[in-house]
Amino acid sequence: MSMPAFEESSRVRRSRRTPKKIFDLSSARRTLPLVGHIVAEAVEVRTRWIHNRREADKLQALRTSDWNVRKDIYRLGDEIKRDEARHEALEQELFDLGVVLMDDIRGLAGFPTIVNGSLAYLVFQHELEDIRSWRYRDQEKLRPIPQEWDAETPLLFENSEGLLV
Q1: What are the backbone dihedrals phi and psi of residue 24, each rounded to the nearest 5 degrees, phi first?
Q2: How confident is the model at residue 32 (pLDDT cuts 50, 70, 90)?
Q3: Residue 22 and residue 155: Cα distance in Å, rounded?
Q4: Residue 98: which region, alpha, beta or left (left: phi > 0; alpha: psi -120 to 50)?
Q5: Average pLDDT, stretch 63-86?
Q6: Which of 8, 21, 29, 141 has the fewest CB neighbours in a 10 Å radius?
Q7: Which distant-in-sequence residues (6+ apart) come within 8 Å of 63 by Cβ?
Q8: How far does CA 132 lie from the centroid of its chain?
Q9: For the chain, first and last CA: distance in Å?
């Protein structure tokens, strides 16, 4: 039985699309109840996947023909596949909302936005109840949300590529 690899292939990473919706802080906050629920489930599914993957690896390392061990390996393999499918569905749900699942271990989701003319993300952490940080798309550093962003006017128009800005 072949088990899924722990690391994503580069083909999978390249195939991810960037959502076309652009959020301001208030519109991102309006979606938090739904996004928070989806992200929490994604964290739970990924945590279970990692646990099952480790257990399957331990059992496979035994290299035994004991039917009970083999049965557990097959059961774990089925659970791993179910979790992978559910995780993909959760990522797609977020994508359909215009949100990117940035880190399914720490529970980070990014709402695409524009900061100083560059693509950035308003970052939601599922342990927190609110969006408290942001980052540029090509940088890992999380920065605190400035207070003046709360008072800004919502973004209301759509550009020629269908992006809401």
Answers
A1: -100, 175
A2: very high
A3: 8
A4: left
A5: 88
A6: 141
A7: none
A8: 17
A9: 48
E strand or H helix at 121, and its extent? strand 118-125
- Residue 18: pLDDT band (50, 70, 90) is low
Of the candidates 22, 21, 24, 20, the one whose C-alpha atom is nearest the C-alpha of residue 154 is: 24
> Average pLDDT, stretch 26-45?
95
Q: How many residues does the chain have?
A: 165
CA dihedral 30, 33, 34, 37 (to 10 degrees): 150
The answer for residues whose C-beta is within 8 angstroms of residue 57's C-beta and 6 or more apart is 3
Per-domain boundaries in the chain: 17-151
Structure tokens at 13: 């990473």
Map tokens 């979606």 to a residue: 31
Please tell me the predicted confidence (pLDDT) of residue 8.
41
Q: Residue 132: count other Cβ atoms within 10 Å of its Cβ.
A: 13
* 92-140 per-position pLDDT tens digit: 999 999 999 999 999 999 999 999 989 999 999 988 889 999 999 989 9
Average pLDDT of the residues of the chain? 82
Helix, strand, coil proportions of the chain in percent (round to 5)? 45, 20, 35
